[in-house]
Design a protein that fits this description.
single chain, alpha/beta, four-stranded antiparallel sheet
């Protein structure tokens, strides 16, 4: 597996490179956001590790651009200790996970491997090749596409997995923990707020008015459900 490490501090970058290579990864190094974008186009890494504070383009902007151009890449943000806003902002820009400095290299590698497993599982979602239809939405599990009427909606792998769960279980209320386990896996050790962040992103993409959702309904005290027509 190829991993891109974008970190402007050479000592941290070298430390990560050694540990990932010891665990069988092919490591690509970048010292700036601009270099990370260029190397992603050339090398097509499976996962990108992005430091939030970078010279020039910051990690959030790199994350946003990568998610637009490479929707299937795994993205992990490196954030400073105690910077909760950085964590939330990273998730809202399309990151899959985050790691807080200072970090345990073994935990970092385990979380990266868990992310890769989830990405590989998401690729196999549509082997049956059947359509899911609900209200104005049509999901093709084989091609992993979603249409609202005639309009195609771009989704990240996590957003697609959430929509698949909803469309297969119309009207069923799911707790945040259930969605976390079904989409991110039982071994996910990040912040459970990632569920709410992805719901906000999904609503922004599919709802006519995200502030008054008519498709993804909030079930107070529980979580979310796909509303029946």
């Amino acid at each position: 597996m190829k991993i891109l490490i974008c970190e402007d501090e050479s000592s941290i970058r070298a430390f990560l490179k050694i540990n990932f290579e010891r665990n069988g990864f092919s490591v690509i190094e970048a010292g700036s956001g601009e270099e990370a974008l260029r190397l992603t186009e050339l090398e097509k890494p499976h996962v990108a590790v992005l430091d939030v504070m970078l010279p020039g383009i910051d990690g959030f902007e790199v994350c946003r651009r990568l998610r637009e151009t490479h929707p299937n890449i795994g993205i992990i943000m490196l954030t400073a200790k105690g910077q909760d806003l950085d964590k939330i902002s990273g998730l809202e820009h399309g990151a899959d996970d985050y790691v807080v400095k200072p970090f345990n290299p073994t935990e970092f590698i385990l979380r990266t491997k868990a992310l890769i497993r989830r990405l590989e599982d998401a690729k196999g979602i549509g082997e049956e090749g059947k359509l899911l239809v609900s209200r104005v939405f049509t999901m093709d599990k084989y091609s992993q596409t979603l249409r609202k009427g005639e309009e195609y909606i771009e989704l990240t792998p996590k957003e697609f997995a959430i929509m698949k769960i909803f469309l297969e279980n119309e009207g069923k209320a799911f707790s945040r923990d259930e969605l976390l386990n079904l989409v991110w896996g039982y071994d996910f050790i990040g912040d459970p707020k990632i569920v709410d962040v992805n719901m906000r992103r999904l609503r922004a993409k599919i709802e006519d008015n995200p502030s008054e959702p008519q498709y993804i309904e909030t079930v107070w005290g529980t979580g979310y459900r796909w509303g029946k027509e």
